[in-house]
User: Fold this.
Amino acid sequence: MDTQNTPIHIRLWHKDFWKLAFAEFALVTSISMLAVIAPERARILGLDMEETALMAVCYGIGLYALGPFCNYLVQNYRRNKVCLLMMALLALLLAALSWFTVHTLPMSHRVMCSVVFVSAFLTGATFGLSQMLLLSTLVIDECESFLRTEANHHMAWFGRFALSVGPCLALLLTAWNRTASLISIGFVVAAFLLVNLVKFPFKAPDEVPLLSLDRFFLPRGLTLFFCFLPVAMVVGMLVSAIRQPQFYALIMGGFLLAILAEKYVFANAELASQCVSGLICMIVALAMLLLRGNMPVVYSIAPVMLGFSVGIIGSRFLLFFVKLSDHCQRGTSQSTYILAWESGLALGLAAGYGLCHAHPSKVLQCGIVISVVVLAFYLLYVHPWYMRNKSR
Assistant:
């Protein structure tokens, strides 16, 4: 039995925590809106599906660009100021991209692609470092040590709900692409303002190397990383292919069921049960959509099951990363979790556009295969490995 199961007691912490939580919600909502808007932008700029997929790959690579500098930056500068700088740069970048899409400058297709790919890379870099600083540093600084696991857990839930709100909102504004772009920028500005309202104590600079894995990547978590990444990849593939806002609204219902299940079903269950149940639900939901997706009742139930599966799997893996880390590596474990999730989403978008050409049946078939492989990998290797190697 798991002696440190998912935190389920909701405490009303200091108001500064909630400012950071809603900043996380706003930031992820902005990027998830961008994931839905991006294909239309690419089409306007003359990019095909393969080039749109490469754009997602560049974004995914960008997530890792500034991570090695994370520890140096937070040890030598005001950590909240570094996060605010990244958010400001992200907002300016999104504004420039929106302007560029509307006012297309005369240039060759190759130069156009280069501009788009570099922009996607910079978007991933600024968003990735913002996420690492917000979730692995700022929220930890704001909480007492005995509340930090619960804080990480709740912050992750704000991000998950944003993942369903963003696409839903973007699809509702499909006819007003420019308006959706402005709202996406507005969410980044809102996140900036919320973080700016929180006061963080000054910490004296510390001598650390310019490049390091601290607060960036946990090498011993590589097995968990490669088990969790494909789960996020399935979600990214679905975002590339499913364009109905009600689908994402129903996913939110599944998230709510997952929260209830954490409290009443999995609180004292066997440790493996949460991931196994989630993966089985994901496989069943994808199979239902593939075989009977044209039936209204299936199209209502399957998204709820998907939201439930993503919610309980994500919560369990977040705790896996925390428990695998040593006491001083909590921030590093959170950054690794973030990278696994965001990388998976980026790869899923790339595969959905480049390999499946956003065709729903192909996406669902690939999703089922990936989910079955992950389930086998988890049962046969990851779970036994984790039980031998966890630190807490």
Notes: The CA atoms of residues 82 and 325 lie 25 Å apart.
